[in-house]
Amino acid sequence: MLTAADLPPIIQGGMGVSVSSWQLASAVAQHGHLGVVSGTALDLVLARRLQNGDEDGHARRALAAFPEPDIAERVLKRYYISGGRGAGTPYSPIPRLAIRQRRALQELAVTGSFVDVWLAKEGHSGLVGINCLEKIQMSTPATLYGARLAGVDAVLMGAGVPRTIPNLLNMLARNEPINFAIDVDGADDGAFTVDFDPVNLLGYVPKVQRPVFLAIVSSHVLALFLAREEAIRPDGFIVETPPAGGHNAPPRRPELDERGEMVFGPRDEPDLDKIAATGLPYWLAGAAGTPEALREALIQGAMGIQVGTVFALSNDSGIRPGIRDQMRAGIHDDSLYVRTDPKASPTGFPFKVAEISGTMSETSIYEARPRLCDLGYLRTAFVKADGEIGYRCPSEPVHMYVRKGGDIADTIGRQCLCNGLTATAGIAQIHAGGYLEAPVATLGSDLAGAKRLAEKYPAGWSAIEVINWLVSLSLDSPRIKKGLSPSLS
Ligand SMILES: Cc1cc2nc3c(=O)[nH]c(=O)nc-3n(C[C@H](O)[C@H](O)[C@H](O)COP(=O)(O)O)c2cc1C
């Protein structure tokens, strides 16, 4: 059985929505390292790809391999449009995440993650992981189960305290019915659960194995907490520091600088000796994507590095090509700035916003967007006055959020990351009134590695070129040599 110690030195970070596409994960895995697909909103990604006609046939090829053909058939029937939807036609909605889940929701979630992991693993025997956000709890059981049906090797999860995941993975591997506890404002822990019964969903008992679980942590305090008890202990850690792209853990002492950005201080630096003392393997992330950083990490006793930004900028990522070109050009001429925005994300976590024209980082584009919430991945559940469950998101229309008991102060500066990140992946919704969702772009704030690659490869680079560059100073390291051996092919 695969263990965390068997995982390779380079982990290509999971980047949502679909920045860590199956094409990127496949390229990295075939090159001997851990390719990771983003597990965020894969139900939506599949439904929209099918509505766009699935031009290359990849989604339909993967669905044909889904172990329960009736489920795949229902998904195809519901979403596939031969030749694609007409220009200007809105995508049809999919079931919204909720605590009580209809069968159609779970079928789309399971097939969505199955498709991306299956495609990332197709045609080679390299290792593929899936990245999920703790904050999107309600989709976790179905998404991880679909990934597991496709043979996912590793699960990586951060943006919260992923203490229930080890047990969830054990239960899913045994095909047991799951009552997965969901955080609900105003309710006791464990009062509400997402119920997921794999055997009932599929109609038979498939053979599934438990993947390796890596918890993404930003502090040694959290790592020590998770490592203490077997029931919540991950198999290893990704230790992510503040320059990382996407969401960051909030600083221990929240403070803003004169630009209104969240600042991190020495207290936010994880103590690696303490993490090493847990005895669990760990990888370093956040401004760790250079040949020097990989060499240093291996010398210091880490298993390797998790790298985001330079892979996100590679030709294999799922960022819409025009936006990627703008990012690379801005890095090349030093005009691109990435800010640590304390308000943009409805989660309340700091979020890295790449300031690029034509995206939500521009005030005029942000203000032109009619506030609406039609996707809802980042909604949180709360108990209403009548005892029923409600859902709210600080990025939804202000009056609705306030009517649901939300604090108006939480709505200021919030962006709709669901629609914005989906637009960056090239599957933007066009609403019935004609409004086309604008992209939200994120990158890590340390662009030094990307700048070096932009100079080395002015016309752009591939994931394989990133790997060859990263390992270039560590070719004599036994861990790198092992990765370069043909044992995985
Ligand atoms: C475009 C982008 C999107 C990201 N999205 C996620 C995500 O959805 N989940 C997650 O755990 N990390 C996410 N990250 C963080 C990366 O997985 C990785 O840990 C981090 O970017 C490493 O730092 P680096 O960018 O300096 O290499 C994202 C990073 C980028 C650049």
SSE map:
Layout: E1 10-12, H1 22-30, E2 35-38, H2 42-51, H3 58-64, H4 69-79, H5 103-121, E3 128-133, H6 140-149, E4 154-158, H7 165-173, E5 178-181, E6 184-185, E7 193-196, H8 198-202, E8 212-217, H9 220-228, E9 236-240, H10 272-276, E10 282-285, H11 291-300, E11 304-307, H12 309-312, H13 321-332, E12 338-341, E13 351-354, H14 363-368, E14 380-383, E15 389-392, H15 398-403, H16 417-424, H17 448-456, H18 463-470, H19 478-484
Helix pairs in contact: 1-5, 2-5, 3-5, 5-6, 6-7, 13-17
Flavin mononucleotide binds next to strand 3, strand 11 and helix 12.
Short summary:
Helices cover 34% and strands 13% of the residues. The radius of gyration is 21 Å and the shape is globular.
Q: Radius of gyration from the CA trace? A: 21 Å
CATH architecture: Alpha-Beta Barrel
Oligomer: single chain
Q: Give the strand order of the largest sheet, numbering strands 1, 2, ... along the chain.
A: 1-11-10-9-8-4-3-2
Please tally the helical runs, counting DSSP H or I stretches of 4 or more residues.
19
Gap between N and C termini, in Å?
18 Å
CATH superfamily: Aldolase class I
User: Structural class given helices, strands, pairing?
Assistant: alpha/beta
Task: Give a count of the beta strands, DSSP E runs of length 2 or more.
Answer: 15
Q: Any idea what the shape is?
A: globular
Low-confidence spans: 485-489
* Average pLDDT taken over every residue: 96
